[in-house]
Specification:
This protein is of the alpha+beta class. The chain contains two helices and six strands; from the N terminus they run ββββααββ. The strands form two sheets. The protein has a four-stranded antiparallel sheet with strand order 2-3-5-6, covered by helices on one side.
């Protein structure tokens, strides 16, 4: 197999470090295992971030997400771990991770975790006439 799962997140230089802009990434095929039953859990990850000096490289993100496939994890824990790893890799001005888990036992779970760099304030929203 040419690719293997990996916990290593690669980055590249932000092409516009002087501007606040938002990068949105949707990962519809996240899987991990229920730590109680060992059955697979499926989720869509929504990553939104305002980069500072670095951006996450998407192939490495794909391999990183794949690395959770055989790991047991509670939804809350895995969402926060992924956010922590992404923040550690790219040091964004702001990042939000929304993990929408598919139904388990008749219950849908959505976990939202955020990071805000110290001192960063979002720009004012502009409403045009």
């Amino acid at each position: 197999m040419p690719s293997q799962p990996s916990k290593e997140l690669e980055t590249f230089d932000n092409p516009e470090p002087g501007r606040d802009y938002t990068i949105r990434i949707r990962v519809p095929e996240f899987t991990c295992l229920c730590p109680k039953t060992g059955q697979p859990d499926f989720a869509t990850l929504h990553i939104e971030y305002v980069p500072d000096r670095l951006c996450v490289e998407l192939k490495s993100l794909k391999l990183y997400v794949w690395s959770f496939r055989d790991e047991g994890a509670f939804h809350e824990a895995v969402t926060n771990r992924i956010l922590d790893d992404l923040v550690q890799a790219v040091h964004p001005r702001f990042m939000r991770l929304t993990a929408e888990f598919n139904v388990r036992g008749g219950i849908y779970t959505t976990v939202v975790a955020e990071h805000r760099a110290e001192g960063w304030q979002p720009p004012l929203h502009v409403t045009l006439p």
